């Protein structure tokens, strides 16, 4: 619950700061008439809407599971991120249209020095907020916060590009640079929106997180117990900040129910120590078979049928298979 409250607190500040920075950017646009600054202001409108949408999604995902949502409400974070990404893409398309219009019919520019100061201030604040969001979002496995962080950093890059363009216009007097900068930065905005949508769809479709499984494989290989004969059929599903992990653990067949469950508890403790309490673990225990002896290095096993030959490293490829490992003749 503490993690959820922290996520909500961070996102609340994101929404508040986005609202204030929008006012600053709109002021800068009316002072200068720059279509590049209009680009920044439009993205800030998306920031405000996405900020409050993300706040609501984090509030909803923090609600306890119930009979209608036995795995909790975390999936709403993927929906929130997908909507945010879509809004970013739409803003990018609109910016392209306005930039092309302004390229052929350029508008006069005013008070560029004041506009640059205002945009510079918003860039610094957005950078700080974006880094904060990404750090907390990554730590707490919150897709909503990570999406907000990426969006804010994208806005920072946009502002930096706009500052460079305005400086060129200020010193050269070439006004078409304004539209050219807006066009270039719209491509950055479109790519950012695509990446957020792609990540959201992966979560909604329960796409396997290969990076997470790779990290998990390393942890398990470095901390194997002798009763952990084999591990397979592993699946990880994300529910917002919560992770749901399924796997099959092969243990010596002669362990009683309590002994087998103790091995599962040790596995769960190991995983949670490395990945946090947000991970929910469901482990099915299997009894070893005769062919398991060749890859089992358990000492003083009275039931051994074959001598130990080698230990099979658990990898992404072999852990996700629904099949016990074995050494083929």
Number of distinct helices = 9
Average of pLDDT: 84
- Helix coverage percent of residues? 55-70%
CATH class division of the largest domain: Mainly Alpha
Helix- and strand-based class? mainly alpha
> Termini, distance in Å?
51 Å
Quick tags:
9 helices, 2 domains, Alpha-lytic protease prodomain-like, Alpha-Beta Plaits, 329 residues, three-stranded mixed beta sheet, mainly alpha
Q: What do these coordinates show?
A:
By secondary structure, this protein is mostly helical. It folds into 2 domains: 2-204, Up-down Bundle (Alpha-lytic protease prodomain-like), CATH 1.20.1510; 210-319, Cation efflux protein, cytoplasmic domain (Alpha-Beta Plaits), CATH 3.30.70.1350. Helices cover 64% and strands 9% of the residues. The protein has helices at 2-32, 35-61, 76-104, 112-139, 143-172, 176-204, 210-222, 257-275, 316-319, and strands at residues 230-239, 242-251, 279-287. It has a 3-stranded mixed beta sheet. Strand 2, helix 8 (257-275) and strand 3 form a beta-alpha-beta unit. It is elongated and about 90 Å long. The relative contact order is 0.12. The mean pLDDT is 84.
